[in-house]
Specification:
Blueprint (H helix, E strand, L loop, with lengths): L1 H30 L7 E3 L4 E8 L3 E10 L7 E6 L4 E4 L10 E9 L5 E11 L5 E11 L2
Parallel strand pairs: 2-8
Antiparallel strand pairs: 1-3, 3-6, 4-7, 5-6, 7-8
Length: 140
């Protein structure tokens, strides 16, 4: 009985070590850098939309090009607040191709000077890039 108990403990320890090794391998794979490429912004990353009337919804666009030699994957595009809704390209952008990141800004309840940010996360060395726009919202 004692031998059976020792065998059971040894077997459990062996399987526990193997599952830990698998987890470590999976973690290493998850943390390896993806194939990196580069992005070139074709226009300014800082845009001034000028003056608009409160309540208007305006759109801002940022043109870019995949200037690297691997597919560019825009993983996420996030706005700094709920009044700005960005859109990201769904498909990877091939080397040399161009695309656009758009965002709509709803000025309802946002009088005065507004400075907004959009964070783009992609498979580039500088993982996050920040786009900005400003607009002066006038009340009637």
């Amino acid at each position: 009985m004692k031998k059976l108990f020792i065998l059971l403990i040894a077997t459990t320890a062996l399987f526990a070590c193997q599952s830990t090794d698998k987890k470590t391998t999976a973690e290493k794979t998850a943390n390896e850098p993806a194939e990196l490429t580069s992005i070139q912004w074709l226009d300014s990353t800082t845009i001034n939309l000028g003056k608009i009337k409160e309540g208007q919804v305006v759109e801002v666009s940022y043109r870019f090009k995949n200037s690297g030699d691997k597919n560019l994957v825009i993983e996420s595009v996030k706005a700094g607040c709920g009044c700005t809704v960005p859109e990201r390209p769904e498909k990877p952008i091939a080397p040399g191709e161009e695309d656009i990141i758009k965002a709509k800004f709803d000025s309802h309840g946002k009088p005065g000077h507004q400075q907004k940010t959009i964070t783009v996360t992609a498979n580039t060395p500088e993982k996050d890039q920040v786009l900005t726009f400003s607009v002066d919202v006038e009340t009637e």
